[in-house]
Design a protein that fits this description.
By secondary structure, this protein is of the alpha/beta class. It has 2 domains: about 140 residues, Rossmann fold (3-Layer(aba) Sandwich), CATH 3.40.50; about 100 residues, 2-Layer Sandwich (Dihydrodipicolinate Reductase, domain 2). The protein has a 7-stranded parallel sheet, with helices on both faces. Strands 8-9-7-10-11 form a 5-stranded mixed sheet, covered by helices on one side. Strand 10 and strand 11 form a beta hairpin. The protein binds nicotinamide-adenine-dinucleotide (NAD). The site of nicotinamide-adenine-dinucleotide has 25 residues, from helix 1.
Length: about 250
């Protein structure tokens, strides 16, 4: 059993991780959240400087705004981190890369094993069908803040070529689709846990590869597996490829 500090503990994903942790051999020893809740089964602090508990790793399901304080704490304590929040900017990504010189950093915009398989299959399809036009459609619940989803961006990176250009929706466009475009479309509504579809459109046929998240436990499960994997790893950047395929 490893001991973990959970950042974003009081959010929706924090609740999922908390519910599954013990069954996955992970003990949450403390939480960090700017929005404190009192009914958590472990102490929750408004920032990392107040955490007293010893841990083997940190799981982060908060927001990019919390990243820099989290990395500073992890570096100081030499703790591996699992970064599961999405919406990082260039500055955040540079800070993550820098931290990985000193600590093990596992990051994936989607912690589901199925999405990792989807990404791998999409990269293969794009390589086999270079003339086909690609469109990515994602659907999420009405509380999601960022668009396109981090997973859609990850899928874009998996299929994009050197000259590809992301086109976000086509509102107001008056010219036909260019071959190098990759359309990105975000649908928001209801309680959809997450759906991603990558379509490869050719002359006279098209294929679609898709993944449907039936509930959010898949992300919690992946993050807990990632924490077990990363505890004790050497400094560096790790992702689902390392976890699923040992890449
Ligand atoms: N990688 C994945 O597989 C995956 C899956 C689902 C969600 N996510 C991402 O995880 C994050 C959380 O998602 P959610 O649905 O649980 O959101 P949420 O809004 O329900 O929870 C986020 C929690 O983080 C807290 N928080 C916000 N800023 C903070 C800060 N600076 N420091 C500490 N805590 C802070 C909030 O108070 C809240 O309790 C989002 O970025 C979301 O896109 C990733």
């Amino acid at each position: 059993m490893i001991h973990v500090i959970l950042s974003g503990a009081c959010g929706r994903m924090g609740a999922q991780v908390t519910a599954l942790a013990e069954s996955r051999n992970v003990k949450i020893v403390a939480g960090v959240d700017v929005n404190l809740r009192t009914d958590m089964p472990y102490p929750v602090y408004p920032d990392f400087s107040m955490v007293k508990e010893q841990a083997d790793a940190i799981i982060d399901f908060s927001r990019p705004e919390g990243l820099h304080a989290l990395l500073a704490y992890a570096r100081e304590k030499k703790l591996p981190v699992v970064l599961a929040a999405t919406g990082y900017n260039e500055n955040d990504l540079a800070a993550i890369k820098d931290a990985a010189n000193e600590i093990a950093v596992f990051r994936s915009a989607n912690m589901s094993l199925g999405v990792y398989v989807l990404k791998t299959l999409c990269a293969r399809a794009a390589a086999m069908l270079p003339e086909y036009e690609i469109e990515i459609i994602e659907k999420h619940h009405n509380q999601k803040l960022d668009a396109p989803s981090g997973t859609a961006v990850m899928l874009y990176d998996a299929v994009a070529g050197e000259n590809s250009e992301a086109v976000y929706g086509r509102h107001g466009r008056t010219q036909k689709r260019q071959p190098h475009e990759i359309g990105m479309h975000a649908i928001r509504g209801g309680s959809v846990a997450g759906e991603h579809e990558v379509g490869f459109y050719g002359p006279g046929e098209y294929i679609t590869l898709s993944h449907l998240a039936q509930d959010r436990s898949i992300f919690a499960n992946g993050a807990l597996r990632a924490a077990l994997f990363i505890a004790g790893q050497a400094p560096g950047e790790y992702d689902m490829g390392a976890l699923v395929e040992g890449l």
